[in-house]
Amino acid sequence: MSDPRTPAHEAGDRRPGADAGAPRLGFRTGDIVVVTGAGSGIGAATAAAAAAQGLVVSAWDLDAAALTAVSAAVRAAGGVVDPHVVDVADASAVRAALAGTRSAYGPVRHLVNNAGPSSATELDFDHAVRLCVGSVRSVTQVWLEQAPPGATLVNTASVAGTVVGTASDWYSAAKAAIVGYTRHLAAHRADAVRANAVAPGMVDTPRLQGFAGSPAGQSVLARVPSHRMATPDEIAWPILFLLSPLASYVNGALLVVDGGWTITQ
């Protein structure tokens, strides 16, 4: 097995699914990443980019049809994907999916906690916070029970958990709590995992379809120095960097990926 700190292009990359045009981030051949919420948006882009690195992608989502489409795209590109229809709030389903992936491919070294409801969803505050933060903690705890040495994790937070307040009170609160949980892991579970988070701004995903052209969207984008929304790929690659051996001394960080939006507020 190659040294995880050695970039794959130096070691000679011959991994199935590895995209010769993608930057090499030094992931080890055959390592496995779980990506929750992989059926669309940031999760789908992360699954595709991870497969392009030669990682085995255990793709989780509640939407079976979306998961099937993402899995087909990954396989068509030569990647390896292990899809599971999973409700991340269901601990038994989480255990079953992890067990299935381990049985088929081996230990799961990397985790991307990306699943969560849209901020536009009307949810009871207490229920929503338990759902969003509790599921991230539950998935992480179950995964860490059998995570191998060198395990890494990235949680998807949001600028709504840093400086931007959303109309949904639960969304801002939950995303801020996910950042706090990430810092807890970095400070107190560094023996088991290197944990970081990303805080996307506005991303051009199905959840924000049509927003950029709306009056509210135009108003917000006028204050973003980049004057556009991010593509899902532009969030996926920072996630993969934080997971990778190239970020081996990055622990407990929150990487804001918002085109400069929050520095102008």
TrEMBL record:
Belongs to the short-chain dehydrogenases/reductases (SDR) family. This is NAD(P)-dependent dehydrogenase (Short-subunit alcohol dehydrogenase family). The keyword Coiled coil does not apply. Signal peptide: none annotated. Pfam families: adh_short_C2 (PF13561). The chain crosses the membrane at residues 235-257. It comes from the Bacteria. It comes from Micromonospora echinospora (Micromonospora purpurea). Keywords: Membrane, Oxidoreductase, Transmembrane, Transmembrane helix. Residues 1-17 have a biased composition (Basic and acidic residues). PANTHER family: DIHYDROANTICAPSIN 7-DEHYDROGENASE. Residues 1-24 are annotated as: Disordered.
